[in-house]
Amino acid sequence: MSTKSFRLALDVGGTNLAAAVVDQEYHILSRESIPAGAGRSIDEITSDMAKVSRMAVQKAGLTLEDMSFWGIGMPSCVNSKTNLLVHANCFGWKNVPIYDYLKKNMPLPVRVENDANAAAYGELIAGAARGYKNALMVTLGTGVGGGIIIDGKIYAGADNLGGQIGHTKLVYDGELCTCGQKGCLEAYCSATALIKFAKRAGLYNSGSKEDAQTVFRFAKEGNPLAMKLIDDYVSYLAAGLSSLIAIFRPEIIIIGGGVSAAGEQLFVPLRQKLENCTFGAAQSGLPPVVCAELGNDAGLIGAAYLDMQNQ
Fold first, then answer.
1. pLDDT band at 5 (very low <50, low <70, confident <90, very high)
2. pLDDT of 21-67, one tens digit each?
3. What per-residue confidence (pLDDT) applies to 311?
4. Which long-range contacts (CB under 8 A, 24 or more apart) does 202-205 make?
5. What are the two backbone dihedrals, phi and then psi, of residue 246, each rounded to the nearest 5 degrees?
6. CA–CA separation, 101 vs 74, rounded Å?
7. Spatial separation of the C-alpha atoms in residues 310 and 72, rounded to whole Å
8. Which CB contacts under 8 angstroms, 24+ apart, belong to 93-99?
9. Which of 182-189's residues contact partners 24+ apart within 8 Å by CB, and which partners?
10. Distance between CA atoms of residues 37 and 67, nearest Å
11. What whole-number distance in Å separates Cα of residue 126 and Cα of residue 301?
12. Cα–Cα distance between 41 and 253 in angstroms, integer?
């Protein structure tokens, strides 16, 4: 390949900074990861963001001159009106001029995007949503994230703060969410929420691992309490997705995150409930609801190609 044929991606989390080099066929050529070191200064952390990215380039046997772009996914977003990183909970950053810090350490065009949006874009260009232009992705993990793709591009509203799927409302004044509001989709459909409800119901016995997959396993074994918990969980998820379908009418819905590992035990009842509760389902059908394909690579691949959003 000629120079400038490769792209640099960075996935920023509260625990690790994970970098990768991605080629034109969406293959990851190299990876590097270092501890994020939350609690340090912005200068120190952004310097390490560049450091681990350079390490990935070196590991691939390439140089920065071979890179055309540096894409970064992190649990925050840049307000397109102010150009400030709004709020990165993992570091305690609020209204940070992130590009000023990044450009001090890396001589490449750079874009920062919400990590869930980057993952949705990765699934669009290289994963479960290949061939589609309008897609919805929902990740069911510690929280509930997701991304909205319209006409092949990430949709995040007028100021780039939209697309917060996990913080759409299910229940007014309902369960407390991590965002401080009550009744959010995340408060009912994250793995954390399922674990909370299982603990509250007394499902876990001595020696049982307190995670979401244990609830699914107990349900599969016929435990009536676990079966009720899973039915309630899927009902909440169907209610949330049905609203999003009614608004966006995507061509496909991708479900990722740890809970998606339950496979058809999740997807079969979810599809059935969506048939029953979604506006227009009887007349126009429903988009396919499928499992994400790329796992943690989705965010890296999507981040590497964020500059395509400008074209």
1. confident
2. 999 999 999 999 999 999 899 999 999 999 999 999 999 999 999 99
3. 64
4. 203/229
5. -60, -35
6. 15
7. 15
8. 93/42, 96/42, 98/46
9. 184/144, 185/144, 185/236, 185/240, 186/143, 186/144, 188/233, 188/236, 188/237, 188/240, 189/140, 189/144, 189/233, 189/236, 189/237, 189/240
10. 26
11. 8
12. 39
Q: Identify whether the C-beta of residue 187 lies closer than 8 Å to the C-beta of residue 177.
A: yes
3-state secondary structure of 262: helix
pLDDT tens column, 251-261:
999 999 999 99
Is the pTM value of this prediction over 0.85? yes
Q: Are 117 and 147 in contact (CB under 8 A)?
A: yes
Residue 7 pLDDT > 80, yes or no?
yes
Q: Which residue in this structure is represented by tokens 């990740």?
A: 139
Kindly tell me if the per-residue pLDDT of 220 is higher than 60.
Answer: yes
305 touches 120 (CB < 8 A): no
Q: In the chain, what are the domains? A: 6-121 (3.30.420.40), 131-291 (3.30.420.40)
